[in-house]
Predict the structure of Putative gluconeogenesis factor.
Amino acid sequence: MTAANRIIRVIKGRQPKVVVIGGGTGLPVILKSLREQNADATAIVTVADDGGSSGVIRDYINVVPPGDIRNVLVALSDLPQLTLDIFQYRFKSHDAFFSGHAIGNLIIAALSEMESGIFDAVQRLSEMMEVDGHVYPAANVALSLNARFTDGTQLVGESEISAARKQIEHVWVTKTADDGEGQPTAMPEVIESIMAADVVVLGPGSLFTSILPNLMIENLGQAVTQTKAEVIYICNIMTQKGETERFTDADHVRILNEHLQQNFVDTVLVNTGRVPENYLDHQKYDEILWPVEHDFKGLRQLGCRVISDNFLELRNHGVFHNGQKVVQEIMNLAFQVNTAKRGE
């Protein structure tokens, strides 16, 4: 019997509650493996993206950027693969009007107008797509990501911030002009899921543009620091241009703690697998630089438990997390928390 099968047998009937917070391509990888492990999975997805098809749609109709939400819905859906392939289909460049747009993005945008908001739209679409779990936008309105750099300058917009290639000091989120004034807030369901979780997982994803935009929503960040759940950070394997150049794994956690003004990360998952020299296609993955350096002493000084292993998956000349191995560790931690709660 494999380790993965042992986890399924032990956890079945209890369904540990796992909340994953982030955005980008790493989130669906973890969610797919959590679904295979019979977890009660909730994805809280960033709404501060301003690039690609998502950004174009947002510019035209002021809707929350749908791309990350689309990919998460697919990762948790029980629909046949052909239906999911249609939902994911992206029009080719010679289709002038629809060029570059994914069909799923257009559907999410339409439902957002029909339901008067992205949150209800995603809940309706989750039912239609037979989603196994929960998908929650981090906020019910589109947010703008703001950054202050160490040289004192500031920029607005995820793509602008990354392209600046400056050292980021602090990020925060604001509502767009069309959505009124006041601080953005997360919906009650988002907060309830975090407070009821066994584990809350941050990442994997871009530190400043996929993870922190969620935590900078005030009531969401407060929930992550106040929950009794184990807070797990999946450290990126590679550093990223314009975000984490020259960062160690301890630097990642330090930035998270500084933004929420306390040491709140309980466990860090760190990859120790070696990326072969000259394997990465830097033209295809042009935002990726080099492997994150390890600083285990620094992590321990920040109060973190460190779980290190070869979490590496190499494919298509890209570097990714092995979802199954990462989720095995998450499920082990979830079981420990679940057991401790029942023993209180």
User: Anything to note?
Assistant: Residues 323-342 form the longest helix (20 residues).
